[in-house]
Write a structure and sequence with these properties.
Blueprint: H1 15-19, E1 22-34, H2 41-44, E2 49-66, E3 71-76, E4 81-86, H3 98-107, E5 113-119, H4 129-145, H5 151-165, H6 173-180, E6 183-188, E7 193-197, H7 202-211, E8 212-216, H8 226-235, H9 239-260, H10 264-281, H11 290-300, E9 303-308, E10 316-321, H12 326-335, E11 339-340, E12 345-346, E13 351-355
Parallel strand pairs: 3-5
Antiparallel strand pairs: 1-2, 1-13, 2-5, 2-6, 2-12, 3-4, 6-7, 8-10, 8-11, 9-10
Helix pairs in contact: 3-4, 3-5, 4-5, 4-6, 5-6, 9-10
Domain GHMP kinase N-terminal: 100-182
Domain GHMP kinase C-terminal: 255-336
Family: Belongs to the GHMP kinase family.
Length: 358
């Protein structure tokens, strides 16, 4: 149900401070299989876009402690950074924990708060970490302020914070993926987003997990302006960009059908086609990067298909490989600096709860 992510709320702004109850939240990271790029407004406002994705068991985590004053203290446990400001003055957006600041500002805290945040992925990983962090902060602050939002509203708030408030270039898939959770076909239309959960047989999901490898390229992608470059190509009418985006959108539906019918080797081959079309859409996403060299090496050692997660330039590679050849792939890529991360699929999205344990 739309409000299942939230506990029963108190509308008394001082209740949490007096009771000692903490608010905790977590939102999952995601991997996408096809359609990335068609979730950008310049595309879906003219052509419908679609993304096939799933959340995984890596999270953005938030703990909210109520204060008796109007101070806000945000502490990042993974970055070792902290900021402090007064609610009456508002935050300064200076590149330090701005997503958390903007989420608090959007929802509106009824009193001072301490906020501990932790993201289980490096910056620029391509796993949707920024949106997951924003979702977790939104959920925690909304819970303590008594706000009630359905999942679509939370995802749109998340999008508005990143794209409008902070002017971060990007699409719309991450905000919906982390908020809803699970395996979803996300359809982006001019006037709305449609989230369709997929009822995939558990044995198929288990088998898919067994065939997938997640490899960090060892390079957090710099700000290469890849999203802006893609938009520029689209607006200029570059034919390869248009064809690549159209095919990626079509593949989101085709790969959904492959999963629902258990055609996993076909699914793996389509991952490679998605990689080719992503490069066609924007050739700069991988050219000359360690990620491209790692993928070429992986293909030589038996990987059937794979894709670069996120906008490109680095981050994680998702690889589909026969189980009997995975050891060779791991050894080859680790020798080049690749780092493998174990993961499993996560069926839940944003979760918010109260805790009596500090």
């Amino acid at each position: 149900m739309p409000t299942d992510a939230f506990p029963v709320r108190s509308h008394n702004g001082s209740a949490y401070a007096s009771s000692g109850v903490l608010i905790r939240a977590k939102a999952p990271l995601r991997i996408s299989f096809a359609g990335g790029g068609t979730d950008l407004p310049h595309y879906y406002k003219n052509h419908d876009g679609a993304v096939l994705s799933s959340t995984i068991n890596r999270y953005a985590r938030v703990t909210l402690y109520s204060r008796g004053d109007t101070e806000v203290v945000i502490r990042s446990l993974d970055l070792g950074r902290s900021v402090r400001y007064n609610l009456h003055d508002g935050p300064i957006y200076d590149g330090v924990l701005d997503l958390a600041k903007a989420a608090i500002q959007r929802i509106g805290a009824p009193h001072g708060i301490d906020l501990d945040i932790h993201l289980e992925a490096p910056k620029g990983s391509g796993l949707g970490g920024s949106s997951a962090l924003t979702a977790a902060v939104l959920g925690a602050v909304a819970s303590t302020s008594g706000g009630v939002f359905n999942l679509y509203e939370l995802a749109e708030l998340n999008y508005n914070i990143e794209r409008l408030d902070l002017k971060i270039a990007g699409g719309k898939q991450d905000q919906y993926a982390t908020t809803f959770g699970g395996f979803n076909l996300l359809e982006f239309r001019k006037d709305r987003v449609v989230v369709t959960p997929l009822r995939i047989d558990r044995s198929v999901l288990n088998d898919l997990e067994a065939h997938l490898l997640l490899c960090y390229t060892g390079t957090v992608r710099p700000d290469l302006g890849l999203v802006d470059q893609q938009v520029k190509y689209f607006q200029e009418g570059r034919q390869d960009t248009l064809r690549g985006m159209q095919r990626l959108c079509e593949m989101a539906f085709e790969m959904k059908e492959a999963l629902l019918t258990g055609a996993l080797d076909q699914f793996g081959k389509m991952l490679h086609e998605a990689y080719i079309n992503k490069k066609m859409m924007n050739p700069h996403v991988a050219d000359g990067t360690p990620a491209e060299l790692l993928y070429e090496c992986a293909r030589k050692h038996g990987v059937i298909g794979g894709k670069l997660l996120g906008a490109g330039g680095g981050g994680y590679l998702l690889l589909y490989c026969e189980t009997g050849r995975q050891l060779d792939v791991r050894h080859a890529l680790e020798a080049m600096g690749g780092q493998f991360t174990d993961f499993s699929f996560e069926g839940l999205g944003l979760q918010v709860w109260r805790s009596q344990s500090r």
